[in-house]
Specification:
Beta-Lactamase, alpha+beta, Phosphatase 2c, domain 1, single chain, elongated, about 725 residues
Length: about 725
């Protein structure tokens, strides 16, 4: 060309450079190619128009997906889209690699992309250069593997802290930042949610910046568009005010990307590099994808943390604080919520002062379900129980009224389309601190357990009725127990028993071991009770506080409530020696009603547990047999209920077991000579043969039959 001659036509230049032109309109789904572009795609060298599907068929499917992503990124950032793609023949073989540069535009009125670009053939570099060239197949594969791993790790993060830790550990293929920061928005200010690669305190100048500040992250939040600064000069010229703040970190390149969820920019992500980065379209694509995943992960974590905070706050507001102190008694309680978002539980406990001077009630219960409705019903039921107890009703009357109350509100809500039927289990204990007498009514709830002064642990079978809310006319018989000095009673919901894959049997054994293994430390008894409560929770979930949240909460299968009631052991002194604990008495008491003969089996099991460390199995069998005979005798030959009291006293090696069965009948038993086929009449004969001592004592009203067995036989 001579100087002054007109420039050649654009088409002639492109032909001379072996460059094709193409046009893609997503509204019509048509791709128009000139002759050179058609040749590069393996078609006859003539202008042609293809459908989008036909054009896609000429390219490797992985590359086509990448082209679409780069187009969208270029439209968002207002930049040139540059991609490489492998051209395939009809047999699926790669025939060449082409490079495309285009300027995509998005027509909002048509909701379509309009893209005009160029197409050139390129030569793949040798294998040794693959790792250094972002657009080679090897780089592409490593990038896809990185994005899969990053997506999986961010999806598994449960809290903001975990998300930031995962983001800090990401090693991007071919380029990795040495510093990260995540910015959030609070009102009209920028906040630093977390950072990595900087010293603690370095974030202070960037905290609570006004969004109008001339700082890249603030601009990203305002506009929703990424900012790439490939050199310190680019940073200084574009953001002269903010440059002194960034200069101290001695970095060479920066990328600021919006954290966008559901079309809303919730913050910005900064990636700083210690070496120059040109931010090619491939590198921008990786950064943009990570930013999207990071935004989703932070959004999920924020929602989960808000739900946990709401759940914990709701549950805390519904649970009471124990107090005031009770003379002669110590009380401790724990509530551990379930995990998994708004998994609000229906478990609760309560402590209610009763009219009449000094007495109080302990209540523990579990409303069916793990949702907001369960928590709401729990709150209503707890208030109702408090009201009935404060009116002075006995335990059976309190639960009967509560059953009618819950039945009424759940059936009314169901009739109005406001939910399904619900029931609740409950254990109500009226406590007399002076005597240690407990009057217990139970509605489908697990029985209490007693740890005796010598460490023996017994489950205490109690009479009970249906769970609250099932039958409005249900009855709730009561059971009398005595909490002796040095003994501790455990009330709990089934979450403490069954969590961790246990059933009622194996779960109870776990609790029993914890109660037996817990050692009393010298000092304040209340402190000992608090440490026992922590030990019970730790046996199920590991270390915890009174209320547990965080990752541990997410693993829980059910919420847990537990109450501990202890009667400290009395001490005696002869006036010259220091105070020492009174000798321990291992005592169990059980009532068997005429209508409940099946409770004889429970009495036998209670006695076996009470004699768990008795050295003679034969004596244990004898004691269980004699108990069964005397209790059955009352139920068969009288119209009265049987009250059983069993005591183990003395020091190991010289102990004795004393069992007494009392009834209100004045008919005294007498010895008979039963025939060979007789089904009864052997009770007193067995007592005479097996007991070391026995007797029948008349009472003011009724009588008692007692027998004793000695660990060491008297001479």
């Amino acid at each position: 060309m001579r100087t002054g001659e007109p420039l050649p036509a654009v088409g002639d230049v492109l032909v001379a450079l072996a460059t094709g032109m193409w046009h893609w309109d997503t509204a019509t789904n048509l791709v128009t190619l000139d002759a050179e572009a058609a040749r590069l795609l393996g078609l006859p060298a003539e202008p042609t128009t293809l459908t989008e599907a036909a054009a896609r068929a000429r390219l490797h499917p992985v590359d086509w997906n990448e082209i679409v992503g780069v187009m969208q990124l270029a439209v968002t950032e207002g930049t040139i889209a540059e991609t490489r793609a492998r051209v395939m023949d009809e047999q699926g073989r790669v025939i060449r690699t082409v490079r495309s540069r285009s300027k995509p535009d998005f027509a909002a009125d048509r909701k379509a992309y309009d893209v005009i670009g160029t197409l050139q053939e390129v030569t793949e570099p040798p294998p040794g250069a693959a790792a250094r060239t972002p657009v080679t197949g090897d780089w592409r594969r490593s990038r896809e593997a990185f994005l899969l791993d990053a997506g999986r790790a961010l999806a598994e993060a449960r809290s903001t802290e975990e998300v930031l830790r995962v983001a800090a550990g990401l090693s991007m293929p071919g380029f990795s930042p040495d510093g990260l920061a995540v910015f959030g928005v609070q009102a009209d200010r920028l906040t630093v949610i977390g950072h990595h690669g900087q010293r603690p305190g370095d974030e202070r100048p960037f905290s609570y910046m006004p969004l109008e500040t001339d700082y890249p992250a603030a601009e990203v939040v305002r506009t929703g568009r990424a900012v790439y600064l490939s050199s310190p000069e680019a940073y200084k010229s574009r953001y002269p005010t903010a440059w002194p703040l960034a200069q101290v970190f001695d970095r060479q390149s920066w990328a600021f990307l919006p954290l966008t969820v559901a079309g809303r920019t919730m913050g910005a992500w900064m990636a700083g590099f210690a070496y120059p980065v040109s931010f090619t379209p491939d590198e921008r694509s990786v950064l943009t994808t990570v930013a999207r995943m990071l935004a989703q992960a932070l959004s999920r974590a924020g929602v989960a943390e808000s739900e946990r905070e709401l759940t914990d706050g709701l549950q805390r507001s519904m649970l009471p604080t124990l107090g005031p102190e009770i003379p002669g008694m110590d009380v401790a309680a724990r509530y551990i919520p379930t995990g998994g978002g708004l998994q609000v539980g229906g478990d609760w406990y309560d402590m209610i002062p009763l009219p009449g001077g000094g007495r109080f009630a302990l209540v523990i219960g579990d409303v069916q379900g793990h949702d907001v409705r369960a928590a709401g019903l729990m709150g209503q039921l707890r208030i109702a129980l408090r009201a009935y107890a404060s009116e002075g009703h006995r335990p059976d009357a309190v639960l009967s009224r509560a059953a009618r109350f819950l039945h009424g509100i759940t059936h009314s809500a169901t009739s109005a389309g406001g939910g399904d039927l619900r029931f609740a289990t409950c254990l109500y204990v009226e406590v007399d601190p002076t005597t240690g007498v407990l009057e217990i009514a139970r509605a489908g709830h697990p029985d209490p357990a007693i740890r005796m002064a010598d460490g023996t642990v017994l489950a205490r079978p109690t009479a009970g009725g249906l769970p609250l809310g099932i039958d409005p006319d249900a009855d709730y018989p009561t059971t009398l127990l005595a909490l002796e000095p040095g003994e501790t009673m455990l009330l709990c919901t089934d979450g403490l028993i069954e969590t961790g894959g246990h059933d009622l049997e194996t779960g109870w054994q776990r609790i029993r071991r914890t109660l037996e293994d817990h050692k009393e430390e010298p000092g304040d008894k209340g402190t000992n009770l608090e440490s026992l409560a922590d030990a019970l929770v730790q046996a199920v979930h590991g270390p915890s506080s009174h209320h547990t949240t965080g990752p541990l909460a997410d693993r829980r299968e059910d919420d847990i409530a537990l109450l501990l009631l202890s009667r400290p052991q009395e001490c005696v002194s002869d006036g010259t020696t220091p105070l020492s604990p009174r000798p321990t008495v291992r005592r169990t008491m059980l009532t068997i009603a005429q209508a409940e003969p099946e409770r004889v089996a429970a009495a036998r099991q209670q006695l076996r547990e009470q004699l768990h460390d008795w050295p003679s199995p034969d004596q244990i069998d004898s004691a269980v047999l004699l108990l069964s005979e005397t209790a059955t005798n009352v139920l068969v030959h009288t119209d009265a209920d049987a009250l059983i009291v069993a005591e183990v006293t003395g020091t190991p090696g010289e102990r004795r077991i004393h069992v007494e069965v009392t009834d209100v009948s004045d008919d005294l038993p007498h010895k008979r000579r039963p025939g060979e086929l007789a089904s009864s009449g052997r009770g007193l004969m067995l007592i005479e043969m097996l007991a070391d001592a026995w007797g029948v004592d008349p009472r003011g009203e009724g009588k008692s039959i007692w027998f004793e067995l000695y660990e060491k036989k008297p001479h």
